Structures
1.
Amino acid sequence: MRHFVALGDSFTEGVGDPVEGIPLRSSHDWLAQWMQAANPGLRYTNLASRGLRAAEVRSQQLQRGLSLEPDFVSIVVGANDCLRGPFSAERLRAELNLMLGAFQSVGARLFTATLPNFTLRLELPGGVCERVKRNLEAANELIRLLARRHGALLFDFWEHPLEHEPVLWSEDGVHPNAKGYLEIAHQVAPVLERHGIAVRVLAAQGEGR
Protein backbone atom coordinates (compact mmCIF):
# COMPACT_ATOMS: atom_id res chain seq x y z
CA MET A 1 0.00 0.00 0.00
CA ARG A 2 1.37 3.39 -1.03
CA HIS A 3 -1.14 6.17 -0.33
CA PHE A 4 -4.19 6.41 1.96
CA VAL A 5 -6.56 9.27 1.11
CA ALA A 6 -9.58 10.22 3.26
CA LEU A 7 -12.56 12.21 1.96
CA GLY A 8 -15.40 13.46 4.10
CA ASP A 9 -16.76 16.01 6.54
CA SER A 10 -16.10 16.97 10.17
CA PHE A 11 -16.00 13.36 11.38
CA THR A 12 -13.07 12.58 9.10
CA GLU A 13 -11.48 15.97 9.77
CA GLY A 14 -11.61 15.32 13.52
CA VAL A 15 -13.87 18.04 14.95
CA GLY A 16 -14.77 17.55 18.61
CA ASP A 17 -14.09 18.36 22.25
CA PRO A 18 -10.61 17.91 23.73
CA VAL A 19 -9.95 15.33 26.43
CA GLU A 20 -7.03 15.77 28.78
CA GLY A 21 -4.08 13.58 27.88
CA ILE A 22 -5.38 12.49 24.47
CA PRO A 23 -4.59 14.44 21.29
CA LEU A 24 -7.67 15.56 19.35
CA ARG A 25 -7.29 13.64 16.11
CA SER A 26 -9.85 11.97 13.87
CA SER A 27 -10.19 8.20 13.84
CA HIS A 28 -8.76 8.30 10.31
CA ASP A 29 -5.66 10.08 11.57
CA TRP A 30 -5.14 7.45 14.27
CA LEU A 31 -5.67 4.63 11.79
CA ALA A 32 -3.26 6.19 9.32
CA GLN A 33 -0.59 6.42 12.04
CA TRP A 34 -1.06 2.75 12.91
CA MET A 35 -1.05 1.74 9.23
CA GLN A 36 2.18 3.70 8.74
CA ALA A 37 3.68 1.91 11.74
CA ALA A 38 3.08 -1.37 9.90
CA ASN A 39 4.02 0.10 6.52
CA PRO A 40 6.56 2.94 6.97
CA GLY A 41 6.42 3.95 3.30
CA LEU A 42 2.70 4.73 3.40
CA ARG A 43 1.63 8.30 2.58
CA TYR A 44 -1.55 9.76 4.09
CA THR A 45 -3.68 12.69 2.97
CA ASN A 46 -6.82 13.83 4.81
CA LEU A 47 -8.92 16.04 2.51
CA ALA A 48 -11.97 16.24 4.79
CA SER A 49 -13.58 19.52 5.76
CA ARG A 50 -16.35 20.23 8.27
CA GLY A 51 -19.93 21.06 7.37
CA LEU A 52 -20.01 19.48 3.92
CA ARG A 53 -22.90 17.59 2.39
CA ALA A 54 -22.12 14.66 0.08
CA ALA A 55 -22.39 16.77 -3.08
CA GLU A 56 -19.90 19.26 -1.65
CA VAL A 57 -17.47 16.51 -0.69
CA ARG A 58 -17.69 15.24 -4.26
CA SER A 59 -17.26 18.68 -5.86
CA GLN A 60 -14.42 19.79 -3.57
CA GLN A 61 -12.49 16.58 -2.87
CA LEU A 62 -13.05 13.94 -5.56
CA GLN A 63 -10.78 15.26 -8.30
CA ARG A 64 -8.08 16.18 -5.79
CA GLY A 65 -8.30 12.70 -4.32
CA LEU A 66 -8.04 11.02 -7.71
CA SER A 67 -5.04 13.17 -8.62
CA LEU A 68 -3.17 11.77 -5.60
CA GLU A 69 -3.39 8.25 -7.09
CA PRO A 70 -4.34 6.52 -3.84
CA ASP A 71 -4.61 2.79 -3.44
CA PHE A 72 -6.69 2.98 -0.24
CA VAL A 73 -9.55 5.48 0.09
CA SER A 74 -12.02 6.28 2.87
CA ILE A 75 -15.26 8.04 1.98
CA VAL A 76 -17.58 8.75 4.93
CA VAL A 77 -20.41 11.15 4.07
CA GLY A 78 -24.09 11.77 4.69
CA ALA A 79 -24.34 13.16 8.22
CA ASN A 80 -24.89 16.73 7.08
CA ASP A 81 -27.33 15.57 4.42
CA CYS A 82 -29.41 13.95 7.16
CA LEU A 83 -29.13 16.73 9.74
CA ARG A 84 -29.39 19.78 7.48
CA GLY A 85 -32.47 19.28 5.31
CA PRO A 86 -33.93 18.92 2.86
CA PHE A 87 -32.80 15.31 2.68
CA SER A 88 -32.81 13.31 -0.56
CA ALA A 89 -31.84 9.65 -0.34
CA GLU A 90 -31.58 9.53 -4.14
CA ARG A 91 -29.17 12.45 -4.22
CA LEU A 92 -27.02 10.94 -1.49
CA ARG A 93 -27.04 7.58 -3.29
CA ALA A 94 -25.97 9.21 -6.55
CA GLU A 95 -23.14 11.20 -4.97
CA LEU A 96 -21.70 8.33 -2.93
CA ASN A 97 -22.07 5.89 -5.83
CA LEU A 98 -20.17 8.30 -8.08
CA MET A 99 -17.33 8.74 -5.60
CA LEU A 100 -16.95 5.06 -4.76
CA GLY A 101 -17.17 4.14 -8.43
CA ALA A 102 -14.51 6.68 -9.43
CA PHE A 103 -11.96 5.29 -6.99
CA GLN A 104 -12.93 1.68 -7.69
CA SER A 105 -12.28 2.31 -11.39
CA VAL A 106 -8.65 3.20 -10.67
CA GLY A 107 -8.13 0.11 -8.54
CA ALA A 108 -8.22 1.65 -5.06
CA ARG A 109 -9.46 -0.34 -2.09
CA LEU A 110 -12.39 1.37 -0.42
CA PHE A 111 -13.60 1.98 3.12
CA THR A 112 -16.83 3.58 4.29
CA ALA A 113 -19.05 3.63 7.38
CA THR A 114 -22.67 3.99 8.30
CA LEU A 115 -23.77 6.99 10.35
CA PRO A 116 -24.31 7.09 14.12
CA ASN A 117 -27.78 7.54 15.57
CA PHE A 118 -27.47 11.18 16.55
CA THR A 119 -31.01 11.16 17.95
CA LEU A 120 -29.73 9.22 20.96
CA ARG A 121 -27.88 12.36 22.10
CA LEU A 122 -29.54 15.35 20.45
CA GLU A 123 -32.44 17.05 22.20
CA LEU A 124 -34.88 17.47 19.31
CA PRO A 125 -38.63 18.04 19.16
CA GLY A 126 -40.53 14.81 18.60
CA GLY A 127 -41.36 15.36 14.95
CA VAL A 128 -37.86 16.54 14.11
CA CYS A 129 -36.31 13.62 15.96
CA GLU A 130 -38.43 11.14 14.02
CA ARG A 131 -37.56 12.81 10.70
CA VAL A 132 -33.83 12.81 11.42
CA LYS A 133 -33.92 9.16 12.47
CA ARG A 134 -35.75 8.23 9.25
CA ASN A 135 -33.14 10.13 7.26
CA LEU A 136 -30.33 8.30 9.04
CA GLU A 137 -31.93 4.90 8.53
CA ALA A 138 -32.42 5.60 4.80
CA ALA A 139 -28.85 6.86 4.47
CA ASN A 140 -27.42 3.83 6.22
CA GLU A 141 -29.43 1.43 4.08
CA LEU A 142 -27.97 2.90 0.92
CA ILE A 143 -24.44 3.13 2.39
CA ARG A 144 -24.56 -0.61 3.12
CA LEU A 145 -25.92 -1.32 -0.37
CA LEU A 146 -23.22 0.73 -2.10
CA ALA A 147 -20.48 -0.76 0.07
CA ARG A 148 -21.52 -4.21 -1.16
CA ARG A 149 -21.80 -3.03 -4.76
CA HIS A 150 -18.31 -1.52 -4.80
CA GLY A 151 -16.60 -4.04 -2.54
CA ALA A 152 -15.87 -1.44 0.15
CA LEU A 153 -14.87 -2.37 3.67
CA LEU A 154 -17.64 -1.24 6.00
CA PHE A 155 -17.75 -0.21 9.64
CA ASP A 156 -21.38 -0.30 10.78
CA PHE A 157 -21.75 2.51 13.30
CA TRP A 158 -25.54 2.36 13.61
CA GLU A 159 -26.53 1.33 17.15
CA HIS A 160 -22.94 0.29 17.87
CA PRO A 161 -22.14 -0.01 21.61
CA LEU A 162 -19.96 3.11 21.25
CA GLU A 163 -23.17 5.05 20.70
CA HIS A 164 -24.20 4.44 24.30
CA GLU A 165 -20.99 5.68 25.97
CA PRO A 166 -21.55 9.36 26.86
CA VAL A 167 -17.89 9.75 27.85
CA LEU A 168 -16.92 9.34 24.17
CA TRP A 169 -19.03 12.18 22.76
CA SER A 170 -18.65 15.94 22.53
CA GLU A 171 -21.17 18.24 24.16
CA ASP A 172 -22.83 18.90 20.80
CA GLY A 173 -24.06 15.28 20.69
CA VAL A 174 -22.88 14.89 17.10
CA HIS A 175 -19.10 14.60 17.15
CA PRO A 176 -16.97 12.17 19.11
CA ASN A 177 -14.53 13.79 21.51
CA ALA A 178 -10.79 13.07 21.50
CA LYS A 179 -11.28 9.84 23.45
CA GLY A 180 -14.17 8.86 21.20
CA TYR A 181 -12.17 9.21 17.99
CA LEU A 182 -9.42 7.08 19.48
CA GLU A 183 -11.86 4.40 20.62
CA ILE A 184 -13.53 4.32 17.20
CA ALA A 185 -10.11 3.77 15.63
CA HIS A 186 -9.57 0.84 18.00
CA GLN A 187 -12.85 -0.66 16.78
CA VAL A 188 -12.11 -0.10 13.08
CA ALA A 189 -8.55 -1.45 13.15
CA PRO A 190 -9.63 -5.12 13.40
CA VAL A 191 -11.98 -4.61 10.44
CA LEU A 192 -9.01 -3.52 8.34
CA GLU A 193 -6.84 -6.35 9.63
CA ARG A 194 -9.48 -8.97 8.79
CA HIS A 195 -9.26 -7.79 5.19
CA GLY A 196 -5.50 -8.00 4.95
CA ILE A 197 -4.59 -4.39 5.72
CA ALA A 198 -1.64 -4.28 8.10
CA VAL A 199 -2.20 -2.18 11.25
CA ARG A 200 0.14 -1.85 14.23
CA VAL A 201 -1.82 -0.22 17.03
CA LEU A 202 0.29 2.15 19.12
CA ALA A 203 -0.65 3.32 22.60
CA ALA A 204 -1.66 6.97 22.82
CA GLN A 205 -0.22 9.17 25.56
CA GLY A 206 -2.70 9.33 28.41
CA GLU A 207 -4.92 6.69 26.87
CA GLY A 208 -4.92 4.46 29.93
CA ARG A 209 -5.78 1.30 28.06
2.
Amino acid sequence: MFAIGEASRRSGVSVETIRYYEREGITAKPGRAANGRRLYSDAEISELAFIKRCRDLGFSLPDVRALRSLSGNAEGACSEVSTLGKRHLSDVRSKISDLRKIEAALEDLVASCESGEAKCAMLENLLADKD
Protein backbone atom coordinates (compact mmCIF):
# COMPACT_ATOMS: atom_id res chain seq x y z
CA MET A 1 0.00 0.00 0.00
CA PHE A 2 1.24 3.42 -0.96
CA ALA A 3 0.54 7.01 0.12
CA ILE A 4 -0.93 9.41 -2.42
CA GLY A 5 2.46 10.98 -3.22
CA GLU A 6 3.92 7.62 -4.15
CA ALA A 7 0.77 6.69 -6.08
CA SER A 8 1.20 9.95 -7.99
CA ARG A 9 4.84 9.23 -8.76
CA ARG A 10 4.15 5.66 -9.88
CA SER A 11 1.10 6.48 -12.01
CA GLY A 12 2.25 9.82 -13.41
CA VAL A 13 -0.99 11.47 -12.24
CA SER A 14 -0.68 14.56 -10.07
CA VAL A 15 -1.91 14.43 -6.49
CA GLU A 16 -4.57 17.07 -7.21
CA THR A 17 -5.80 15.12 -10.24
CA ILE A 18 -6.02 11.92 -8.18
CA ARG A 19 -8.15 13.77 -5.62
CA TYR A 20 -10.30 15.19 -8.43
CA TYR A 21 -10.86 11.72 -9.93
CA GLU A 22 -11.96 10.48 -6.50
CA ARG A 23 -14.33 13.42 -5.92
CA GLU A 24 -15.91 12.96 -9.35
CA GLY A 25 -16.27 9.20 -8.95
CA ILE A 26 -13.91 8.41 -11.82
CA THR A 27 -11.98 6.20 -9.45
CA ALA A 28 -13.14 4.52 -6.28
CA LYS A 29 -12.13 6.11 -3.01
CA PRO A 30 -9.05 4.31 -1.69
CA GLY A 31 -8.69 2.75 1.70
CA ARG A 32 -7.41 4.86 4.56
CA ALA A 33 -4.70 4.31 7.11
CA ALA A 34 -5.46 4.67 10.82
CA ASN A 35 -4.30 8.28 10.59
CA GLY A 36 -6.81 8.98 7.77
CA ARG A 37 -4.28 9.15 4.94
CA ARG A 38 -5.21 7.59 1.61
CA LEU A 39 -3.55 4.28 0.79
CA TYR A 40 -3.33 2.95 -2.77
CA SER A 41 -2.80 -0.62 -3.90
CA ASP A 42 -0.84 -1.64 -6.99
CA ALA A 43 -4.18 -2.26 -8.75
CA GLU A 44 -5.41 1.27 -7.95
CA ILE A 45 -2.13 2.74 -9.19
CA SER A 46 -2.47 0.71 -12.40
CA GLU A 47 -5.98 2.09 -12.81
CA LEU A 48 -4.64 5.65 -12.42
CA ALA A 49 -1.96 4.95 -15.03
CA PHE A 50 -4.62 3.56 -17.39
CA ILE A 51 -6.69 6.72 -16.97
CA LYS A 52 -3.61 8.86 -17.58
CA ARG A 53 -2.81 7.03 -20.83
CA CYS A 54 -6.40 7.56 -21.99
CA ARG A 55 -6.29 11.26 -21.08
CA ASP A 56 -2.89 11.66 -22.77
CA LEU A 57 -4.58 10.43 -25.96
CA GLY A 58 -7.26 13.07 -25.47
CA PHE A 59 -10.17 10.83 -24.50
CA SER A 60 -12.90 12.65 -22.58
CA LEU A 61 -13.69 11.62 -19.02
CA PRO A 62 -16.96 9.93 -20.09
CA ASP A 63 -14.98 7.95 -22.68
CA VAL A 64 -12.38 7.08 -20.04
CA ARG A 65 -15.14 5.75 -17.82
CA ALA A 66 -16.49 3.68 -20.71
CA LEU A 67 -13.04 2.34 -21.60
CA ARG A 68 -12.35 1.50 -17.97
CA SER A 69 -15.65 -0.33 -17.75
CA LEU A 70 -14.95 -2.20 -20.97
CA SER A 71 -11.47 -3.18 -19.78
CA GLY A 72 -13.08 -5.45 -17.20
CA ASN A 73 -14.98 -7.33 -19.91
CA ALA A 74 -12.42 -8.59 -22.40
CA GLU A 75 -14.94 -10.62 -24.42
CA GLY A 76 -16.97 -8.53 -26.81
CA ALA A 77 -15.37 -5.30 -25.64
CA CYS A 78 -13.16 -4.85 -28.69
CA SER A 79 -16.03 -3.77 -30.92
CA GLU A 80 -17.18 -1.10 -28.46
CA VAL A 81 -13.60 0.06 -27.84
CA SER A 82 -13.08 0.28 -31.59
CA THR A 83 -16.21 2.41 -31.95
CA LEU A 84 -15.01 4.78 -29.23
CA GLY A 85 -11.55 4.91 -30.77
CA LYS A 86 -12.84 5.61 -34.27
CA ARG A 87 -15.10 8.38 -33.03
CA HIS A 88 -12.25 9.96 -31.10
CA LEU A 89 -9.90 9.65 -34.09
CA SER A 90 -12.47 11.42 -36.24
CA ASP A 91 -12.70 14.23 -33.66
CA VAL A 92 -8.91 14.54 -33.57
CA ARG A 93 -8.70 14.73 -37.36
CA SER A 94 -11.37 17.43 -37.38
CA LYS A 95 -9.42 19.45 -34.79
CA ILE A 96 -6.24 19.05 -36.84
CA SER A 97 -8.07 20.36 -39.90
CA ASP A 98 -9.36 23.34 -37.92
CA LEU A 99 -5.87 24.02 -36.54
CA ARG A 100 -4.40 23.97 -40.07
CA LYS A 101 -6.95 26.62 -41.11
CA ILE A 102 -6.03 28.73 -38.09
CA GLU A 103 -2.34 28.25 -38.87
CA ALA A 104 -2.83 29.46 -42.45
CA ALA A 105 -4.83 32.51 -41.33
CA LEU A 106 -2.19 33.42 -38.74
CA GLU A 107 0.62 32.98 -41.29
CA ASP A 108 -1.16 35.47 -43.58
CA LEU A 109 -1.69 37.94 -40.76
CA VAL A 110 1.89 37.70 -39.50
CA ALA A 111 3.23 38.06 -43.05
CA SER A 112 1.22 41.26 -43.46
CA CYS A 113 2.84 42.63 -40.27
CA GLU A 114 6.32 41.85 -41.55
CA SER A 115 5.76 43.97 -44.66
CA GLY A 116 6.54 47.09 -42.63
CA GLU A 117 3.34 48.94 -43.50
CA ALA A 118 2.36 51.89 -41.30
CA LYS A 119 -1.04 50.37 -40.63
CA CYS A 120 -1.07 46.95 -39.00
CA ALA A 121 -3.15 44.67 -41.20
CA MET A 122 -3.26 42.05 -38.48
CA LEU A 123 -4.86 44.41 -35.98
CA GLU A 124 -7.22 45.77 -38.63
CA ASN A 125 -8.36 42.24 -39.43
CA LEU A 126 -8.83 41.40 -35.77
CA LEU A 127 -10.78 44.62 -35.13
CA ALA A 128 -12.96 44.31 -38.24
CA ASP A 129 -16.64 43.54 -37.78
CA LYS A 130 -17.03 40.27 -39.65
CA ASP A 131 -20.08 38.09 -39.40
3.
Amino acid sequence: MEDVSSDLLEEFKERMHISHSIEDDNLKRLLSFSIVDLREKCGQFDVEKDLRAKELVFERTRYSYNDALEYFNDNFLSQINSLGLSIALKESDSDAAI
Protein backbone atom coordinates (compact mmCIF):
# COMPACT_ATOMS: atom_id res chain seq x y z
CA MET A 1 0.00 0.00 0.00
CA GLU A 2 1.25 3.46 -0.92
CA ASP A 3 1.97 5.88 1.92
CA VAL A 4 -0.34 8.91 1.71
CA SER A 5 0.84 12.19 3.20
CA SER A 6 -1.32 14.23 5.54
CA ASP A 7 -1.13 17.11 3.06
CA LEU A 8 -2.50 14.97 0.24
CA LEU A 9 -5.29 13.69 2.47
CA GLU A 10 -6.22 17.21 3.57
CA GLU A 11 -6.19 18.49 0.00
CA PHE A 12 -8.52 15.67 -1.07
CA LYS A 13 -10.83 16.26 1.89
CA GLU A 14 -10.98 19.97 1.09
CA ARG A 15 -11.86 19.20 -2.51
CA MET A 16 -14.58 16.79 -1.42
CA HIS A 17 -15.86 19.17 1.29
CA ILE A 18 -15.19 16.60 4.01
CA SER A 19 -14.57 18.38 7.29
CA HIS A 20 -14.55 15.50 9.76
CA SER A 21 -11.73 13.06 10.43
CA ILE A 22 -13.81 9.93 11.02
CA GLU A 23 -13.09 8.64 7.51
CA ASP A 24 -9.39 9.55 7.35
CA ASP A 25 -8.14 5.96 7.41
CA ASN A 26 -10.58 4.94 4.70
CA LEU A 27 -9.73 7.97 2.57
CA LYS A 28 -6.00 7.27 2.92
CA ARG A 29 -6.63 3.70 1.81
CA LEU A 30 -8.69 4.84 -1.19
CA LEU A 31 -6.04 7.40 -2.18
CA SER A 32 -3.36 4.73 -1.85
CA PHE A 33 -5.28 2.30 -4.06
CA SER A 34 -5.75 5.04 -6.66
CA ILE A 35 -2.05 5.90 -6.70
CA VAL A 36 -1.08 2.25 -7.15
CA ASP A 37 -3.69 1.66 -9.87
CA LEU A 38 -2.69 4.72 -11.88
CA ARG A 39 1.02 3.95 -11.55
CA GLU A 40 0.33 0.48 -12.95
CA LYS A 41 -1.53 2.02 -15.88
CA CYS A 42 0.67 5.07 -16.54
CA GLY A 43 4.09 4.56 -14.97
CA GLN A 44 5.87 6.14 -12.01
CA PHE A 45 4.93 9.65 -10.92
CA ASP A 46 5.21 11.82 -7.83
CA VAL A 47 1.65 12.54 -6.81
CA GLU A 48 2.74 15.59 -4.82
CA LYS A 49 4.50 17.22 -7.82
CA ASP A 50 2.67 16.02 -10.93
CA LEU A 51 -0.59 17.97 -11.00
CA ARG A 52 -2.13 15.86 -13.79
CA ALA A 53 -1.41 12.68 -11.87
CA LYS A 54 -2.78 14.20 -8.66
CA GLU A 55 -5.96 15.21 -10.47
CA LEU A 56 -6.47 11.66 -11.73
CA VAL A 57 -5.73 10.20 -8.30
CA PHE A 58 -8.33 12.52 -6.78
CA GLU A 59 -10.90 11.71 -9.46
CA ARG A 60 -10.38 7.96 -9.12
CA THR A 61 -10.63 8.26 -5.36
CA ARG A 62 -13.82 10.32 -5.69
CA TYR A 63 -15.35 7.62 -7.90
CA SER A 64 -14.27 4.93 -5.45
CA TYR A 65 -15.62 6.89 -2.47
CA ASN A 66 -18.97 7.23 -4.23
CA ASP A 67 -19.13 3.53 -5.19
CA ALA A 68 -18.87 4.33 -8.90
CA LEU A 69 -15.37 3.06 -9.64
CA GLU A 70 -16.58 0.96 -12.57
CA TYR A 71 -17.15 4.22 -14.53
CA PHE A 72 -13.78 5.84 -13.88
CA ASN A 73 -11.69 4.17 -16.61
CA ASP A 74 -14.21 4.91 -19.36
CA ASN A 75 -14.83 8.48 -18.24
CA PHE A 76 -11.12 9.36 -17.87
CA LEU A 77 -9.58 7.18 -20.59
CA SER A 78 -8.11 10.07 -22.57
CA GLN A 79 -6.55 11.65 -19.45
CA ILE A 80 -5.13 8.27 -18.35
CA ASN A 81 -3.65 7.69 -21.81
CA SER A 82 -2.27 11.23 -21.93
CA LEU A 83 -0.58 10.88 -18.55
CA GLY A 84 0.86 7.49 -19.49
CA LEU A 85 2.21 8.87 -22.76
CA SER A 86 3.69 11.89 -21.02
CA ILE A 87 5.45 9.69 -18.45
CA ALA A 88 6.74 7.34 -21.18
CA LEU A 89 8.12 10.28 -23.17
CA LYS A 90 9.88 11.69 -20.09
CA GLU A 91 11.42 8.27 -19.41
CA SER A 92 12.46 7.99 -23.05
CA ASP A 93 14.08 11.44 -22.97
CA SER A 94 16.03 10.64 -19.81
CA ASP A 95 17.15 7.29 -21.28
CA ALA A 96 18.37 9.08 -24.43
CA ALA A 97 20.34 11.56 -22.32
CA ILE A 98 22.36 8.74 -20.73
